[in-house]
Amino acid sequence: MTARAQRLDRRTITASTVIAAGALLLAAIPTAIGMVLGGLGAGWVALWCVAGLVIGTASTAAMEAIRLAVTTFRLDDHRVERRVRFLASTTTSIATSRVRSVEISANVVQRRMGIATVKLSSGETDGARLTLASLDRQAAEGLRRRLLADRASADSTEVARVDPGWVRYAPASLMTPMFGLIAVGVVFQVADWFQAVPEILSWVWGRIEDVPIPLLVVAAILAVLLVGSLISAVLFVENWWAMRLHHHRDGSLEMRRGLLVGRHTTLDGSRIRGMTLHEPPGFRMVAAARLDVVAIGVGIGNDENGQTKPSPALVPASPRDVPVGVAESVLGVELPGSGSLRAHPPRARRRRHLRALLTTLALTAFALVPALVWSSLWWVPVAVVAVSGAVSAWIASDNSRGLGHAVTDRVVALRKGSIMRRTDVLTRDGILGWNIRRTPFQRRAGLVTLFATSAGGTGAFRLPDLGHDQAAQVWRTAGDVWDHLAL
């Protein structure tokens, strides 16, 4: 029996229009300030800003009305189908038996109006995804329960709940200095739109010209880190507000989180292929870590159809015992500890120190150029060799200490990196095979790099610089068929 075609909820027109009006109003404020500074009269400023606000809001309402008029969807016992009939007809469908992930999200306006956006994804690595924006909130929950059947209401255990105190770990992220630099760049970009950069630089320089340069550098770094820390904390609160992670009896995961945009995601347990523990230097200094799931169709970025993949994030930056406990609960095994990971040969350590030395020499060679042209800059190559040498040596040592792997009856653990330290814990039955790579330098050193092939996550998980005997032990986790490989 063919199901009747249904329309999206008309309240989405109002919700989208309100959001667009708010965004345009926020953009109008700096625009008006810039126009006033540029000498434009108050009347013209008001006219341009009000006209832009009205036209932008009306355009959004019109486009949303058209989108709803040309979009229908239907759900029967076999398929979920969305059809868009405009200049051309486009149909997207997913078999109900293949739906493995359902995400219900609602921003502040949508929550107030009782509607939500539903995102469905199938079980393939980059399989079909379908978005319904927007449905009545109760209808969205009913759709989730119908598609996931028993998984939507099965007995579950809460394995993680956000602690407000975890926000203190957010500034330890590698992105903190990047956020600070981006904020500075945005300020100068907006100022450049109104040709105000020279005035800003002149104003700043007039107040710091007598301050020693080393002190200025330190102050600038601290300012960037402070701004980046504030942004990191704000993003942490927005993304992880009221986070609850439940593990269902059938292995599926259900998560609720978000402040301005609430998200309710259910992930089929049969898609999970492992976990990834992230421990960059900042997290290690405060004994913290964050956890991502390795699952089919879940990852960062877009799939082959341009659709956004469901986020792999399970646990935010938190005390290390929390993500480790969640990973053990979901996978049903005890994770290999640092002491049980098998270290890689000393030759791997020498390779990293050699790369550190070559990096220092290359940077010093570049720094010699200005010193040869202007003798007063003799201190530049000295500073570069000291700083780059110390940093490169530390990274090389930390990287070599971080190399390790472990093979158990159920999982394979792969740890690598220093700045981007990560531990991939993959289930053995989820490993499809191994790719083997050896550069000429690795062949001379008797080392090999392995890539685990899996349907989950990025699809390839790298483990560099193993010895011959270690590589053979690892690749056999995918079956005896790999024993024919000769190194």
In short:
44% of the residues lie in helices and 27% in strands. It is an alpha+beta fold and 487 residues long. A hairpin with a 3-residue loop joins strand 3 (79-85) and strand 4.
Overall description:
- The chain is α+β, with helices and mostly antiparallel strands and 487 residues long.
- The protein has helices at 11-37, 42-70, 108-113, 137-148, 175-193, 197-208, 213-240, 281-285, 321-331, 346-373, 379-402, 440-445, 468-475, and strands at 6-7, 71-75, 79-85, 89-95, 99-107, 115-122, 129-136, 156-161, 244-248, 253-257, 261-267, 272-278, 288-295, 313-319, 404-407, 411-416, 422-427, 431-437, 447-454, 460-467.
- The strands form four sheets. A seven-stranded antiparallel beta sheet has the order 7-6-5-11-10-9-8, with helices on both faces. The protein has a six-stranded antiparallel beta sheet with strand order 14-13-12-17-16-15.
- It starts with 5 loop residues before the first strand and ends in a 12-residue tail after the last helix.
- The relative contact order is 0.08.
- The mean pLDDT is 88.
